[in-house]
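DOMAIN: structural biology
WANTED: fold as tokens
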Amino acid sequence: MLDQLIKLVEQNAGDAIVNNPAIPNQFNNDAIQEVAQQIFTGLQGQVQQGNLQQVVGMFKGSSGSSLTSNPMVAQIISSVAGNFAAKFGVSPQLAQQVVSGLVPQVMNQFVNKTNDPNDGDFDLQDMMRNFSGNSGLDIGDLLGQFSGGKTGGLGNVLGKLFR
């Protein structure tokens, strides 16, 4: 899944990274991979902190707000910007500017691809298994909450997550 996320960042990194004169060209590939890795790590951290419902809600579009105002996305942006500035020798302000434009774009496409039944590369069930490290995780009950279906309860889902 990280490979697909790297591809999404590559597709959106044109002006933010590749064509940005403040970022030396020899850092382009590393910068793209760093952004993708930090997005993955940020989402993984949210799931491992017990925010499974919020992460699934963001991917199912039930958060009720845009991704730019989502606290999880804001936290990812902050983390990516800090790492970006430290690793690539750009100012914190430039890093924030680059990341603030790029991460929401990538996250929006990430969410759209996850919800596209014709795109098998981004399966929400597989993503949550990757983020949680639990290969037996079944988020069907939780997904039912977002589709109006009957659920077995969030407690059942969280209990499966942390076995």
